[in-house]
Amino acid sequence: MIDQKRAVVTGGARFIGSHLCHKLIREGKDVLCADNLYTGVKRGAGKKH
Asked: Which of 19, 26, 31, 41 has the most neighbouring CB atoms within 10 Å?
């Protein structure tokens, strides 16, 4: 069975990925945001509640 309380988002420091991470966190998901920061920004992947 798939655990629907967890999510992995690649490219999480970019525009769409960071918004997706924040949305999933607001929905109560445990989110792992992965990004190599080549084009993203570290502040975009910050923890928000």
From this structure: 31
Q: Measure the CA–CA gap between 22 and 31, rounded to whole angstroms.
A: 9
pLDDT bin (cut points 50, 70, 90) of residue 38 is confident
What is the DSSP-derived secondary structure letter of residue 30?
A: E
Convert 1-37 to b/e letters by CB count within 10 Å (16 or more is b): eeeeeebebebbbbeebbebbbebbeeeeebebebee
Report the predicted TM-score, pTM, of the whole model to 2 decimal places.
0.71
DSSP state of 4: T
